[in-house]
Design a protein that fits this description.
Blueprint (H helix, E strand, L loop, with lengths): L7 H21 L3 H13 L1 H24 L4 H15 L21 H9 L3 H22 L4 H20 L4 H16 L3 H15 L15 H17 L7 H23 L10 H7 L8 H13 L11 H17 L9 H14 L6 H16 L7 H8 L6 H17 L11
Helix pairs in contact: 1-2, 1-3, 3-6, 3-7, 4-5, 6-7, 6-8, 7-15, 7-16, 8-9, 8-15, 9-10, 14-15, 14-18, 15-16, 15-18, 16-18
Length: 427
């Protein structure tokens, strides 16, 4: 059961929860517009920014602390020993039941990233790891070209998923931050930094490679391409500094093999912890045969890429921001490795989409985005009875349904809307 932070966190959380609850009920009785204005005023207030920040960090801190106190830091042990196994030239993907459950699925570069934390005592390592993941995503959100109240809204809408991610000690918050920052750097002629973050994501979790689509928004595309190749080679070889070239090269082969095996396991995982994606929904909710999984992924990729054919829209700030939102949601919706902690990417993408488009800033749009994000975020928490989670939410991958539907709407907008061209950096 998730721990709720005391004192100020509780008062702020209760205040917001009460407003959201009142809005939900009032819409049923036709009074939603007035209460939506109340929520808008709350979001615009100075107190909201303070409460959002405190609760955003506080929930994740409480989540990490609760896992440490209960000794449930298995994922952190996996991360920690990626570093030690790389130094000792031991297989990174073999099971080590005496050290931790499950196996590692991150690339060799992760050994460099986790090294400073692995050298700390476990309690301190977990807490610092969690804090820095949150700080990186917070920094990325604050760099977005939005008005302050919109950034605050993003914090509110992503707080629960960030807490869920933290309970698992996952790296997804940092991955989300790296994609957002690489997007912003590509737009701001900082190709070296943009491609650095993209390739870090690629060599650790593979799907970070989708950031290469930011090439279309880079003003100096040749530099973007050159730096991509440079970092591909440099970061791929970097783990050799703490191991050996032969071991690292063999490890990349092992990594590919274990990911292929993992992909097959994810597809047929019946408990509902994996493949929380478009493929999972179609398979377990609608009975789609696993033979068509490749077709679904291919259609998803095509749907993701089609808007980029509208090259005359590339310079539109709104088109760019919605494309970023689309990409964050796409990564989860079309990966068999998607699980509940990865939905921080989905919540971030939907939040960015919501505050970017004028069509969403209406009572109807606000209601829909609240339903989509909250229903997805809360579906795997203790707010939902265990019976419903085990019998419906997980087996049928219902957590993915709101994000999938919203992604289809996002793609429709990207394909059909005539975006306003603007040189303004603030939306």
């Amino acid at each position: 059961m998730y721990i709720v932070a005391p004192g100020l966190l509780v008062s702020g959380a209760l205040s917001i929860c009460c407003d959201i609850a009142l809005i939900s009920f009032s819409f049923l009785f036709g009074k939603g517009i007035l209460l939506l204005k109340k929520l808008t005023d709350l979001l615009l207030s100075k107190k909201s920014d303070f409460y959002a920040t405190v609760i955003w960090f506080g929930l994740s801190f409480a989540a990490a602390l609760s896992e440490v106190l209960r000794g449930r830091i298995n994922n952190y042990y996996i991360y920690k020993y990626v570093f030690f196994h790389t130094i000792d030239r031991q297989n990174l993907y073999a099971p080590y039941p005496a050290l931790y459950g499950d196996v590692n699925h991150y690339g060799p570069l992760f050994s460099i990233l986790i090294a400073p934390f692995a050298l700390l005592p476990d309690f301190l390592g977990v807490m610092v790891w969690t804090l820095l993941n949150c700080l990186l995503l917070y920094y990325a959100i604050q760099q977005l070209p939005f008005e302050p109240w919109k950034k605050t809204a993003i914090l509110w809408l992503t707080a629960i998923e960030l807490m869920t991610n933290t309970h698992s000690m996952e790296f997804n918050g940092a991955v989300t931050a790296m994609l957002i920052l690489s997007f912003l750097f590509a737009r701001d002629k900082k190709e070296m930094l943009s491609t650095l973050l993209i390739m870090v994501g690629f060599w650790i979790k593979i799907y970070g490679i989708v950031g290469l689509l930011f090439f279309f928004f880079a003003k100096r595309k040749l530099r973007f391409a050159i730096w991509s190749l440079v970092w591909l080679v440099v970061l791929g070889a970097l783990p050799m500094l703490i191991s050996s070239p032969t071991f690292i090269l063999n490890t990349y082969v092992d990594w590919w093999r274990v990911l292929v095996v993992k992909n097959g396991q994810n597809i047929f995982e019946l408990l509902g912890y994996q493949n929380v994606s478009a493929m999972g929904v179609l398979m377990y909710l609608f009975g789609l045969s696993q033979e068509y999984i490749g077709v679904v992924i291919a259609l998803g990729i095509i749907g993701c890429l089609l808007p980029y054919l509208r090259y005359y829209q590339w310079t539109s700030s709104e088109f760019q921001m919605i494309s970023l939102a689309s990409l964050l949601v796409f990564i989860v919706m079309f990966s068999t490795g998607s699980e509940s902690p990865t939905f921080i990417l989905v919540a971030s993408g939907l939040s960015i989409w919501y505050v970017t488009t004028k069509e969403q800033l209406t009572p109807w749009g606000a209601t829909m985005i609240l339903i989509a994000i909250l229903s997805s975020s809360l579906s795997t928490t203790d707010f939902v009875p265990q019976f419903i989670k085990t019998e419906f939410v997980r087996p049928y991958r219902l957590k993915a349904v709101p994000g999938l539907l919203c992604w289809c709407v996002i793609q429709y907008q990207l394909l059909t809307k005539r975006f306003v061209f603007s040189k303004e950096r603030s939306l």
